Amino acid sequence: MSKTNGRMILNLMLHNAGSHRGAWRHASTKVEEIHDIKHFQRLAQKAEAARIDSLFLADGLSVEVKAVQHGPIFGFEPLTLLSAIAAVTENIGLIATMSTSFNEPYNVARLFASLDHISGGRAGWNMVTTGVQRTAHNFGMEQLPSHSHRYARAQEFADVVLKLWDSWEEDALVQDKVSGIYANANKVHDIHHQGTYFTVRGALNIMRPPQGRPILVQAGASDEGKNLAARYAELIFTVQHTIEEARLFYQDVKARTAKEGRSPGSIKILPGLHVIVGATEAEAREKASELSELGSIERSVMSLSNLLGIDFSVYGLDDPFPELPESTQVNAYQTFYQMVLNIVQREQLTLREFLTKHWIGNGQLCIAGTAEQIADVMEEWYTTGAADGFSVMPQLSFGGVEDFLDLVVPELQRRGLFPESYTGRTLRENLGL
Ligand SMILES: Cc1cc2nc3c(=O)[nH]c(=O)nc-3n(C[C@H](O)[C@H](O)[C@H](O)COP(=O)(O)O)c2cc1C
């Protein structure tokens, strides 16, 4: 192992039925249970038994009505769901996505401070800027604010949230029945923030979170996204299609982090990894091909259109992939846009070929194989400067999560890449941050 900073981080994405869009139709999926809190609690407990670092919930604040026929959408609000999971777990980290474009920092600081208290110091906030135009219509806006506006707001948003968490000093809570002093008013401070986007007087209305600051997570790899990460993030959920691209991204973000005056080790980079595990390679391939029969190509076109901000339904599925402009002109997800651009510049594909070959996991790394084969890829990415760990997305929740936990995690442990027990009390301690 060439890494000296210890061990890999494993962040498990929770999905209703699985990360594959056809997973809800698979024979193993108990579709009547995918919105049952017990389903999520069971997965969380299994993940904790396998010593996974954290659970992660993505989120969206709008729904495309014509997409609902093709499968489950985001369901429960992430902090609500993670609070219910916190009640039945003790060690595993709990990371929720919450948008900086459609919330207020005071609410967000309070929500994550609450989850941190409820879970005994296990909360993390994935601060996303949101790139879907439709979302603006749910918040009284005609247009999604521009990419640069959203990122400028996100910077100030994060700044205010941090100030609010810090507004209670560590020893502000006294709770002395004899003197009658509950909290020391000299140690709780109004923040008097006055900026471009926010004016916030307050101290926070809840005492300092157990972690001090819940873990900050970022997803979005445009120039502005990387700068936001370099300044604030401790984990990055990123989408990388090849090891070469992942290494470049890794070096770039670590260098930007150092430029911000932070240690490069203080930011951990976790590429998304979609997995299907089989006892044999043939079995894994068989499952992958079953799933690909169950996915809907119309749904894939919708997801590509949403993430790139371009309507692909007007193009023929068997025509060559349409010409794309430069990614910096895109107001949607520049990360996904750039990745698609890289793929279609490398390979001559029709839209249908692109969608079936590369869009299963929205262009993220996908592996169907045995535990050893999957661990080989993870080890290579981890030991050669492409990743500090992974955001793992089993393509099937029913059975598929267990396969990863029961087969791949022990293989990583055998190789000394992943620890066997939690050593810290909080997520921050367990991550070594
Ligand atoms: C891997 C990944 C996961 C993301 N997850 C979410 C999410 O769950 N919810 C959301 O609103 N935005 C999500 N985003 C969007 C980003 O926060 C950001 O708004 C978007 O990618 C545009 O920024 P970019 O141009 O830097 O990519 C995600 C982005 C990436 C790359």
UniProtKB/TrEMBL annotation:
The keyword Oxidoreductase applies. Transmembrane segments: none annotated. This is Monooxygenase. Keywords: Flavoprotein, FMN, Monooxygenase, Oxidoreductase. Belongs to the NtaA/SnaA/DszA monooxygenase family. InterPro entries: Diverse_substr_monoxygenases (IPR051260), Luciferase-like_dom (IPR011251), Luciferase-like_sf (IPR036661), NTA_MOA (IPR016215). SUPFAM superfamilies: Bacterial luciferase-like. Residues 20-386 form the Luciferase-like domain. Pfam families: Bac_luciferase. GO terms for molecular function: monooxygenase activity.
